[in-house]
Amino acid sequence: MPILQIEDVTKVYEGKVTHRALNQLTFEVEKGEFLAVMGPSGSGKSTLLNLISTIDRPTSGEIIFNDIKPQNLNSTELAFFRRRELGFVFQDFNLLPMLTVEENIVLPLTLDNQTVEVMEQRLASLAKKLDLTHFLQKRPNEISGGQAQRVAIARALIHEPSMILADEPTGNLDSNSSREVLELLSKINRERQATIIMVTHDPIAASFCDRVLFIKDGEFFNEIHRDDRRQTF
Ligand code: ADP
Ligand code: ADP
């Protein structure tokens, strides 16, 4: 049973010139899958993530998430859907500089009016799993990039979403921190059955995934499965 179905999705940006950023794209993502999306700059990767994350709507075609069609939800329902189902990880970490690591992590729950007990229990468990316990009281400018991305991953997981959307999560990290972050995402994917979709330019990052989907000019180009013995290019 797929968690996500992208059916014949086209996105056209209207402006001085109209631009077809995605053209009749169709694919499915299985529950528990760790998928990489690769493609040259301008191929439509950000557009695709913006559509899956419901920040933007397709011009035509359908996106179905666990039998829900986010296109049909009103803005209150959409905000609820996003908070319940999705966690975001960005290239620039997007941590709030004036908050401590701990405050950054629990922020999504604060906004959700969760009880202090739930917050503390989830924070403790994630801090242990992601090895954050020794810098929970620091601020983002006092920790390394790799640590910051682990904090961002904890923030994405704190409300226990069914899917993580990661946009170039290793784009600003050195190779050691990148590996650490990728091993962590991979572990989370295996242990928690959180489905992960990661946009990346980094072939090393893609090598951690179950499947790599290549898009070019907004269209499906090729895909590779981890267990494929023969790959064709
Ligand atoms: P990628 O993330 O693969 O670099 P994008 O999804 O950002 O690609 O962009 C795909 C194409 O759509 C590009 O040609 C880009 O310039 C264009 N595009 C993206 N967002 C907009 C927008 N808001 N308005 C007009 N064109 C856009
Ligand atoms: P990245 O490749 O790092 O994801 P992009 O350059 O593709 O960054 O796009 C960053 C943001 O700018 C996208 O979310 C997209 O909506 C917007 N954008 C990209 N191209 C255009 C464009 N031609 N016109 C307006 N907005 C654009």
UniProtKB/TrEMBL annotation:
Q: Where are the transmembrane segments?
A: none
Keywords (alphabetical) are: ATP-binding, Nucleotide-binding, Transport
Gene3D superfamilies reported for this sequence: P-loop containing nucleotide triphosphate hydrolases
* Top-level taxon of origin: Bacteria
Annotated GO molecular function terms are: ATP binding; ATP hydrolysis activity; transmembrane transporter activity
Q: What's any one GO cellular component for it?
A: plasma membrane
Which residue intervals define the domain ABC transporter in the entry? 4-233
**InterPro entries, A to Z:** AAA+_ATPase (IPR003593), ABC_transporter-like_ATP-bd (IPR003439), ABC_transporter-like_CS (IPR017871), ABC_transpr_LolD-like (IPR015854), MacB-like_ATP-bd (IPR017911), P-loop_NTPase (IPR027417)
The protein here is known as: ABC transporter ATP-binding protein
Species for this entry: Ureibacillus yapensis
Upper classification of the organism: Bacteria, Bacillati, Bacillota, Bacilli, Bacillales
